[in-house]
Amino acid sequence: MKKWLAITRGHPISNYFFILPALGMFLTFSLYPYFDVFRLSVLSWDGIALSKQFVGLANYTDILFNNESWWISFRNAGYITILALTFQNGLALVLAWLVDRGARGAQAYRSIYFLPPIISGIVVGLIWYWILQPDYGLFNSLLSQLGLERWQRAWLNDPDTALTTLAMIHMWRGFGWGFIILLAGLQGISRDLYEAARVDGAGEWRIFWKVTVPLMVPVFVLVSVLTILGTMQIYDIVITTTKGGPGYHTEVPMKRIIDEITSARLGYACAQGVVFGMILFFVSIVQIQLSKRAKVD
Questions:
Q1: Over the Cα atoms of the chain, what is R_g?
Q2: Does residue 14 lie in a domain region?
Q3: 75 vs 97, 106, 109, 140, 239, CA distance in Å?
Q4: Cβ atoms of residues 89 and 224 within 8 Å
Q5: Longest CA pairwise span in the chain (Å)
Q6: pLDDT digits (tens, 9 = 90+) for 51-100
């Protein structure tokens, strides 16, 4: 053994021994479970019993054509995602642009805006759950103090407001990530380009559309893909505020998958996970391709 180590010492292959522990953990806890999901998805199994029944594509057929609640959860998550892509990222862009332009207190804003994303989703959900309580919540109390009692309602329990309220909570927590990434992109644009545009007589609005936006397209794509992937997988805020209710009005795919696991239907949950992952992968690829085409045009 010592002789073999002496031979390999200084050889390029010896460098790879340092990554073996990390590689082993990756293969064991990430890559193997990823591929094993496909095997489990064609089984009927409760996750505990030794016996497993092969059902082929029956789980997939039921998910795609018979499981109405699954597609309701997708619709709900899609609604939250659309709001996040527009309002959340729009607000993040405006704030990042103001800070990049040297707004007063810019350094403080960087810290303040980044605080919500680093707070646990469970904590965020619990905080807003208490704020929005219908009887003793801070928000309804504030409305009462302002003489706006007619606006008071059970924000997280009313079918007309629950999903939008949940989306607002998610956007409050998530816009800081987009802010940081967009700000980094804006600060990566050479100031010489802005000065050259001003010399040519361009105003701030024209500079934004003709200089900033084209150069920020790769950053916009990155933020959009991360927003889609993150929002479609929302779970912690849902479970601490609405638990998917009232009815199925705030049900989301991740909650449906976890509910199937806790109902001793592991094989079915794995099939849902595969379908969910494939849809997210397809949406991300389409968005990236459309963005590349727009950049070329």
A1: 25
A2: no
A3: 32, 38, 34, 29, 17
A4: yes
A5: 85
A6: 889 999 999 999 999 999 999 999 999 999 999 999 999 999 988 988 88
Assigned domain for 37 exists:
no
At 265, list the tokens. 């239907």
Give me the residue label for tokens 């889609």: 228
Q: Interior CA angle at 264 toward 261 and 269, to 5°?
A: 40
Structure tokens at 281: 């992968």
Residue 266: give the domain boundaries. 67-296
**Residue 140 counted as domain residue:** yes
Residue range 21-44: mean pLDDT, rounded: 89
The total number of residues shown for the chain amounts to 297
| pLDDT tens per residue, range 161-184 | 999 999 999 999 988 899 999 999
Q: For residue 121, give both structure tokens.
A: 């989703």
Query: Which two tokens mark 251?
Result: 């049900």
Q: Which two tokens stand for residue 15?
A: 């460098």
What pTM value is reported for the model? 0.87
Domains of the chain: total: 1
> Is 8 inside a domain boundary?
no
Using alpha carbons, select from 295, 157, 217 the residue that is nearest to residue 165: 157
HEC string of the chain equals: CHHHHHHHCCCHHHHHHHHHHHHHHHHHHHHHHHHHHHHHCCEECCCCCCCCEECCCHHHHHHHHCCHHHHHHHHHHHHHHHHHHHHHHHHHHHHHHHHHCCCCCHHHHHHHHHHHHHCCHHHHHHHHHHHCCCCCCHHHHHHHHCCCHHHCCCCCCCCCCHHHHHHHHHHHHHHHHHHHHHHHHHHCCCHHHHHHHHHCCCCHHHHHHHHHHHHHHHHHHHHHHHHHHHHHCCCHHHHHHCCCCCCCCCCCHHHHHHHHHHCCCHHHHHHHHHHHHHHHHHHHHHHHHHHHHHHHC
* Structure tokens given for 169: 């909570």
Query: Cα separation of 255 and 80, whole Å?
Result: 15
